[in-house]
Design a protein that fits this description.
The protein has about 350 residues and is an alpha/beta fold. It has a single domain, classed as TIM Barrel, CATH 3.20.20.210. The protein has 9 helices and 12 strands. It is globular.
Length: about 350
């Protein structure tokens, strides 16, 4: 695959989150009309945390580095609920408190409430992009965010009168403005996290993703999420037969799937992956503290290369790693890189 000006066989990266250092706790970014950071001390701690996160990736040998979503509160299970509010608390048209989220996996969290037309009003992830670009020191950078459909189905509609598509499309247009801003700031890869619990039901779901990514000058990735919170297995049954070829209509550069925990079962459904797309293969089980063996990672990648040509494969974790201790995360990243090196030897 081409990464900036280089051709890399099986480029490596993380999906998104990474364990926070113990001295960074609580909220980092301001919300609504607050400034970017809640205070200057928090800004300094956040920049130091992003630097540690990037350093861990560089030390492991990761090719495309990311911020590890160090701005998310993750000290307790309750604070995971912040992921449902992060976008809403930075867009026009939202208020803080809605009903409990309707999705079974997340019912213990409340939803943000939609009370007006959704609009993008100012950069949201600019502070994360700025800190990561600085820490990356010239290396390719990826910013990963929750997706527009995820937000649509995890908010309380008190304005659009139950017209879910209209709500979703306005959210997608706000995302598009944010993504264009990130690309203009030099972010190389932009990734959305979208679960698969609600796909295959409405064809316009793909229109929402396409609207969010329209004319965005970055490598656009759709991470199809099987669930992560608290090590929860999330979706247990196979879904590849429902997702593909439905997802092939998405105007993205890469589709990413979980294969570390689940194994290669969904790969068979990706045989028709369009030539314009690459496949991101998750090879690290983030819901387990056992460190993968490089040989098993290489075996999985070789199997993936039987379905999608190796020059169109990318290697990653299954999902975010915020549930792990930092030592586990470090060792899993090292295993990812070592397994990828073995696969490169076998496939080159």
């Amino acid at each position: 695959m081409r990464v900036r000006d280089s051709e890399i066989l099986l480029p490596t990266m993380m999906v998104g989150s990474y364990p926070r250092p113990p001295w960074l706790t609580g909220k980092v970014f301001g919300e609504f009309d607050e400034p970017d950071y809640i205070d200057y001390g928090t800004k300094e701690r956040f920049w130091d945390a992003v630097q540690l996160c990037v350093d861990d990736q560089v030390r492991a040998g990761i090719d495309i580095v990311s911020d590890g979503q160090q701005y998310f509160e993750s000290e307790t299970m309750h604070e995971y609920g912040q992921v449902f509010h992060f976008w809403g608390h930075h867009l026009k048209g939202f208020k803080r408190w809605g009903d409990p989220i309707a999705i079974d996996l997340y019912k213990k969290f409340h939803a943000p409430a939609v009370v007006g037309d959704i609009e993008w009003v100012r950069p949201i992830y600019a502070p994360a992009a700025e800190a990561t670009t600085f820490a990356a020191a010239g290396r390719p950078v990826k910013i990963a965010v929750q997706g527009p459909l995820f937000l649509t189905f995890c908010c309380t509609d008190r304005h659009y009168g139950g017209d879910t598509k209209a709500l979703a499309m306005d959210i997608a247009r706000a995302f598009n403005a944010e993504f264009r801003d990130l690309a203009a700031r030099g972010v190389d890869w932009i990734q959305i996290h979208e679960p698969l619990t609600y796909y295959g039901e409405e064809p316009w779901y793909v229109d929402v993703i396409n609207t969010a990514f329209q004319d965005v000058d970055a490598h656009r990735v759709w991470h199809i999420c099987y669930g992560n919170q608290g090590g929860n297995p999330g979706v247990a049954e196979p879904r590849g037969q429902d997702m593909f070829p439905f997802a092939f209509d998405a105007d993205v550069d890469q589709i990413h799937i979980e294969a570390g925990r689940r194994g290669p079962g969904d790969l068979q459904y990706l045989a028709g992956l369009p030539d314009r797309m690459s496949l991101g293969v998750g090879v690290i089980d983030v819901k387990c503290t056992v460190i993968e063996q490089p040989e098993q990672i290489a075996d999985l990648l070789v199997k993936a290369a039987e379905v999608v040509p190796p020059e169109r494969l990318c290697v990653s974790t299954d999902c975010g790693m915020l549930n792990l201790k930092r030592e586990h995360a470090q060792r899993k990243l090292q295993a990812l890189v070592e397994g990828t090196e073995l696969a490169r030897l076998r496939l080159s």
